[in-house]
Amino acid sequence: MLRSENRLKSKKAFSATYRNGNSVSDDLMILYAGKIKQDKNCPTRVGFVVSKKVHKRAVKRNKIKRLMRENIRLMFKNEECETLNQYQSLIFFAKEEILEKTFEEIRNTILILLEKLAIKKIQ
């Protein structure tokens, strides 16, 4: 399970991240990024959104969120991606095509989106 300090919980925090307007997308998901951190000791908070448009059954939506959450948890644990710790908040928004994907495919998509975000930040 993702640590409590790394979870994006409040509606206010989600809205602030969306308002920032920094996003990248792929075939499987969209990544919204909040402000860039000023204090490196502050943890990055991550949120996951899977709408009813993806699947009408909550069981399927929750499974997708669990897969995304576990991928992010492992990335935090292994310190795999520097981009993951550069932002105050991140929101992963799943698209319909994610239903048939495996754990590894979701992991690769997350890494690709974080790379795109890093490239977008540089430009």
Could you give the order of the helices and strands? HEEEHEH
Number of strands: 4
Can you summarize the main beta sheet? 4 strands, mixed
Main sheet strand line-up: 1-2-4-3
CATH class category: Alpha Beta
Mean pLDDT: 92
Report the uncertain regions: none
Oligomer: single chain
SS-based class: alpha+beta
Architecture per CATH nomenclature, i.e. the level-2 architecture:
2-Layer Sandwich
Structural description of this entry:
This protein has helices at residues 11-20, 58-78, 103-122; strands spanning 22-25, 29-33, 45-49, 89-94. The protein is of the alpha+beta class and 123 residues long. The chain has a single domain (4-122), classed as Ribosomal Protein S5, domain 2. It has a four-stranded mixed beta sheet with strand order 1-2-4-3, with helices on both faces. β3 (45-49), α2 (58-78) and β4 form a beta-alpha-beta unit. α2 packs across α3 (103-122). The protein is globular and about 40 Å long.
Task: Report a brief summary of the structure.
The protein is an alpha+beta fold and 123 residues long. It is built from three helices and four strands. The model has no long low-confidence stretch (mean pLDDT 92).
